[in-house]
Amino acid sequence: MTMYQSLIKKEKTLAVIGLGYVGLPIALEFARKFRVVGFDVNSDRVAMMQRGEDPSRELEPEVFKDRDILFTDQLEELAKAHFFVVAVPTDIDEHKVPNLNPLKNASTSIGSILKKGDYVVYESTVYPGCTEEDCLPILEELSGLKMGEDFKLGYSPERINPGDKTKPLTQIIKIVSGCDAKSLEEIAKVYGHIITAGIYKASSIKVAEAAKVIENTQRDLNISLMNELAIIFDRMGIDTQEVIKAAGTKWNFLKFYPGLVGGHCIGVDPYYLLHKSVELGYEPQVILSGRRVNDGMPAWVAKKLVQLLIKKDKSPHHAKVLVFGITFKENVADIRNSKVATLVRELQDFSVNVHIVDPFASPNEVAHEYKLTLSDQISEGYDAVVVAVAHDEYRAYDSSFFKSIMGKNPILVDLKAMYEGIDDGIEYWRL
Q1: DSSP per residue over 129-197, as a string?
Q2: Which H/E stretch holds residue 106?
Q3: Number of Cβ within a 10 Å radius of residue 20
Q4: How far apart are the first and last CA of the chain?
Q5: Pairwise CA distance, residues 425 & 330, whole Å
Q6: Which CATH number applies to 224-430: 3.90.1150.10, 3.10.350.10, 3.40.50.720, 3.40.1580.10?
Q7: Is residue 206 within 8 Å of residue 126, measured between CB atoms?
Q8: Interior CA angle at 402 toward 309 and 386, to 5°?
Q9: Across the chain, how many H-helices and E-strands are there?
Q10: Listing from the earlier edge strand, what are the strands of the sheet with 353-357?
């Protein structure tokens, strides 16, 4: 009996390791069809999921119902599985070097319980070669088993888009790969049982890894171009949004927009490709240039706001600024690699008094991650307001609202270009 058949009949169990923004949704989706073990090392998160709560606040309680899943932080429970899906986070350290510790720790856990006939599929974003060069040796050493002969290895890059309710994971084409033809077919069948959009079979694990990492690298580069153009056009006194609108009338113009590039994908993945490339003796020029532009945007925006304050005869040392939003994108609670936090620090370096509000972000997480404090409520008398994240509730704001919370000579900085027709009484600037 094949692995797929055993999972269908629930004679074998599928496990998902790492139950964050990626792991939890796919674990619950698998649990519609298979018997699943959801494993996470964070016992507090596990306890929440056992109560039917999503720690990331992305999923409603209803999706936990009627699912054949056991949430646990116990290795003994994980050991009962035969098909392992690894969805732990892959970030970068303070030196922008890939942090593979979560991936290696997950590999260590699996390697210690791996059995003959088992499958291990990685979903975490990595550089090409990581699965076979960094993870596989750990699995083989700890298990005493050999890939191909004793167990199968695969890679299927995640394509979760947090906050986007229009593209559930079942409706996104899934790339799969395996260490050989047999594993590729089995992995494709397992994922194909829950993915309705279709399965794409990559020719190798490295191809699948590379496909994932360039998806976000391409987007990063396109946004960096628009950011650089925004800097240039600002010096020319031209509205970048008007330029994009005009250029967008051409059939083959791609509408990318300037902005702060954070999060756990676009702002991180290019560094994985950079790291591997430099290791192989080639230092990328275009990718690195794009990263420099995007990483420099918070400082540039902060400088621009300070210039606007001075233009309005407001001393930065005495200015009070309100920032709307600190999550890395709209309508999510995820604050990882938030460039809004970087912007806040840049403003604080100018001695600006900054208040932050966000209906989605956890005050405890913000305090822990960035040593910043979220305000409980909006005050008044602000010298400037920065709308940094396009949360839906912010779209209803208008000139009268902004005037009600600001003092004389108010300044509105709209980083998401959400507002039109702002009163002349407000100094309005947007990316």
Answers
A1: THIIIIIHHHHHHHH---BTTTBEEEE------TT-TTS-GGGS-EEEEESSHHHHHHHHHHHHTT-SS
A2: helix 101-111
A3: 22
A4: 58
A5: 28
A6: 3.40.50.720
A7: no
A8: 50
A9: 16, 15
A10: 353-357, 320-324, 382-387, 406-414, 427-430
Nearest Cα residue to 35 out of 9, 59, 60, 54:
9
Structure token pair of residue 35: 């018997």
Catalytic annotation, residues = 265
Give the contacts of 425 (CB within 8 A, at least 6 positions apart): 399, 403, 410
Helical H runs in 41-97? Answer: 43-50, 75-78
Classify domain 3-203 at the CATH superfamily level.
Answer: NAD(P)-binding Rossmann-like Domain (3.40.50.720)
For residue range 198-239, what is the model confidence (pLDDT) as tens digits?
Answer: 999 999 999 999 999 999 999 999 999 999 999 999 999 999
Q: Containing H/E element for 269? A: helix 269-279
Tokens coding 137: 């040796």
**CB-based contacts of 223: which residues, under 8 Å, 6+ apart?**
256, 257, 258, 259, 261, 266, 294
Q: Please choose, from the candidates 174, 172, 2, the residue with its C-alpha nearest in 3D space to the C-alpha of residue 85.
A: 174
Please, where in the chain does CATH 3.40.50.720 lie? 3-203, 224-430
C-alpha span between 100 and 228 (Å, rounded): 31
Q: What is the DSSP letter of 372?
A: -
> Which two three-digit tokens encode residue 99?
């942090």
Q: What is the pLDDT of residue 162?
A: 75
Q: What is the DSSP letter of 190?
A: H
- pLDDT, tens digit, for every residue of 362-384? 999 999 999 999 999 999 999 99
With contact defined as beta carbons under 8 Å apart, do 28 and 34 qualify? Answer: no
- Residue positions counted in the chain: 431
CA dihedral 334, 420, 422, 316 (to 10 degrees): 40
Query: What would you measure as the largest C-alpha separation in the chain, in angstroms?
Result: 77
pTM of the entire predicted model: 0.92
Within 10 angstroms of residue 407's Cβ, the number of other Cβ atoms is 14
Tokens at 257, concatenated: 């927009």
Sign of torsion over alpha carbons 409, 410, 414, 420: negative
